[in-house]
Every structure is written in C-alpha cells, then in structure tokens.
Design brief:
By secondary structure, the chain is mainly beta. The chain folds into 4 domains: about 130 residues, Immunoglobulin-like, CATH 2.60.40.10; about 110 residues, Immunoglobulin-like, CATH 2.60.40.10; about 90 residues, Immunoglobulins (Immunoglobulin-like); about 25 residues. The chain contains 4 helices and 27 strands. A 6-stranded mixed sheet has the order 2-10-9-4-5-6, with no helix packed on it. Strands 12-20-19-14-15-16 form a 6-stranded mixed sheet, with no helix packed on it. It has a 4-stranded antiparallel sheet with strand order 1-3-8-7, covered by helices on one side. GO terms for molecular function: cell-cell adhesion mediator activity. Keywords: Disulfide bond, Glycoprotein, Immunoglobulin domain, Membrane, Signal, Transmembrane, Transmembrane helix.
C-alpha cells in the first residue's frame, strides 16, 4: 500500500511541476479518478512573487467544510478530521506544494475539493480538484460444497447507486452459459425456469447473494455476477463451484481357489476417491492391487480396487481398505476379515433359537 501511495505522490508531483511551467499561480489537477475502498491523494502547488509570504493552507471538501489546515512554519500544528492526513508539504523558493491523503475512498468522497493558500499581502489564492470514483467487483473465492448441502455465492459493488440491474450467469464445464437469476431496482428477483425452486436471489443492487438450497452435481460450474451500471457499463467477476459426492465404501471378498481369495473395495464419489490396502506388499499377497474406474451417468465415478491374497491372511491379519477423498478430513477404513463373515450366521441362528425358546415357554405356561 505504501508503494501504491508513493507512486501516486510522484505522479502528482511531476504533474504539478509540469503544470507550474505552463499555467498560473495555484495549480491543481482539474479532475482525478480514485479506486473505491483505497486511499487517494490530492495535491496543490502555489508559486509566489518576491515579498509574498504564505501564512496558512486550508483544504475544503465538497460541502466547503475544512478537512485540514496548517501553518507552513509550524509543522507540528496540523488540524484535520478523521481519515485525512497531511502526506507532504514542500516549501521551496517562492513555492509551496501541499499533498493530503484520504485513507479510504467512499461514495461520499466524490465531489470537488479546494485548496486555499492565505498569502500575505496578496490575499487568498485557491485551486480546485474534482474527484470521481471507480470500483471493482468484490467476489468470494472459488467454493466447494458437498452434494445435498446449502451454499451461498455473493459479490459486492460498492457504488450501488450506479447499478441498474444485477445478473447471475452460470457457465457449465462444457462451456454452455445460461442466465440463472436477475434483479432490477424496485422489482422482485427473477429466477430462470431451470433453477426455480432450488435457487433464491436477494433483492440488492450492492451486495448480491445467490443461494442454492441443496447443491447437486449439475450445479457445478463457474458463476458470474454482473452489475449493469450507469455510466460505467458492466462490471463483473467470476467464481467457480465444485460439488463433491462423498464416498461410502464397501468391502467384500470371493474365493478364487482353495487357498486364494480376492478382496474387493469399491467407492462411488465425485471426484474419484483413492483406494489402498494395508496389506499391499505383504508376502502373502499375490501381487499389487488392481484399480478400475467406471464413470457413472450422474457425474460420479466408481472406483474398484481388487487384491488377491492367501486365504489364511484373513485369519491372521486385520485386512483394511483405506479410502481417501478431497472432501474428507481423514481417510475412511473398512475392515475385511474372515471371521466377520463366518460368524454372522451362527450368531443370527442363536438369536432365532432364543426367540423360539421364549415363545415356546410362553405357550406352555398359558396351556
């Protein structure tokens, strides 16, 4: 920021020096343009005749209110309002340059400023600079959301009084662009037919918010908010949305031969998950895992990882399938062991036998 201000200060100084050779006594740029929300500088230069003495310098805003004044021979006595600083005062032979900084350009700062030089014995000399603002659209960074969850995209244009219409557009991965929603002052937001019931737009010309109630994979794409302004034209910014589908992995195994089993782990997600096994490289495996990818019609990807191993490994080791995904803070582990499959039936049979026994006792008691 300091470099930005210094560059402007140098530019103002060179401009004033050039003008001082071409024009009259008090010199000030007739018009300046500043970026909203950033600092801006105003400068004036006066050249005096021999025998003239500069007593005081004042700066007035567009309402003719004093925002800063000082006496050149008393550097420590500067009176100013909040947000205004004396950036530079240079006194040379029969000349004086005054530069002030307003820390944050806001719509209320637009207008014409005056610099007043009280010169003895000539009287007051003045210069005038009119300031106009320009602005950029402020938009949040790219966003990621999990399928089924809500989210809001927002962007801001600080010069809201110039805005006539707000328009949101979506560009899909294939490159197709469609209008999503729009808002015109003193009217209701309009949601285009393909997005009705799922998307809402707040009625604002300065800070616009596009809300998706339950994100779906088809909502993925890049969203552009356009502020149609007068007289500055269209101001826009774009952010992209990624929709994740989290994996819910499943693991199972099949017997390939008497001593060999094949373990399989699958996960459907968006984007594709990464699957690995904690027994890869074990001396009882038959080789590295083989991974296959299948693109599904809803934009998700099924990943299937298969590894062959000696059947006894299921008894000796806790075989785990590890699934990692960009939308997860940590991996998901799915255990696969032989006893888990073989003991389901005995336990279930015991439960059934117990229930039958209880029913039999109740019947005998009633009889």
């Amino acid at each position: 920021m300091c470099g930005y201000i210094s560059a402007i200060s140098l530019q103002v100084w060179l401009t004033l020096m050039l003008l001082s050779r071409l024009q009259g006594k008090v010199l000030a740029p007739p018009h300046l343009q500043a970026m909203a929300e950033l600092p801006f500088m105003l400068a004036c230069n006066i050249t005096m005749e021999t025998g003239e003495v500069l007593k005081q310098v004042l700066w007035l805003d567009m309402a003719n209110k004093t925002i800063l004044h000082y006496q050149p021979d008393k550097n420590d006595h500067v009176t100013k309002v909040d947000g205004v600083e004396l950036s530079q005062q240079t006194t040379g032979q029969q000349a004086h340059t005054s530069v002030i900084t307003i820390r944050r350009a806001a719509p209320a700062n637009e207008g014409c400023y005056q610099c007043l030089f009280d010169v003895y014995p000539t009287g007051q000399q003045r210069g005038r600079t009119c300031l106009s603002l320009t602005a950029m659209v402020e938009m949040m960074d790219n966003k990621t959301v999990v399928s089924g969850k809500p989210l809001t995209l927002s962007c801001k244009y600080v010069l809201s009084k110039r805005v006539r219409q707000v328009l949101w557009k979506k560009t899909a991965e294939q490159g197709d662009t469609a209008t999503v929603a729009s808002y015109v002052k003193n009217d209701r937001p309009i949601i285009e037919t393909p997005f009705k019931g799922r998307i809402t737009l707040n009625p604002s010309l300065g800070q616009t918010k596009l809300s998706i109630h339950q994100a779906q994979t088809e909502d993925e794409g890049c969203y552009t908010c356009e502020f149609h302004t007068y007289p500055d034209g269209i101001k826009s910014e774009t952010a992209c949305l990624s929709v994740y589908v989290l994996p819910k992995p499943e693991a199972s195994y099949v017997t390939v031969s008497e001593d060999i089993v094949e373990a399989n782990c699958s996960a459907v997600s968006r984007p594709a998950a990464e699957i690995s096994w904690n027994v890869e490289g074990h001396n009882q495996t038959m080789g590295p895992a083989v991974t296959s990818f299948y693109q599904l019609g809803d934009g998700t990807t099924m990943v299937v990882s298969s590894i062959q191993m000696q059947a006894e490994l299921l008894d000796d080791e806790l075989v785990k399938c590890e699934v990692r995904h960009q939308g997860l803070e940590s991996a998901i582990y799915v255990s696969l062991n032989k006893y888990r499959n073989f003991h389901v039936i005995p336990i279930s049979a015991s439960c059934v036998a117990l229930v039958l026994l209880i029913c039999l006792c109740i019947c005998l008691k009633r009889c």
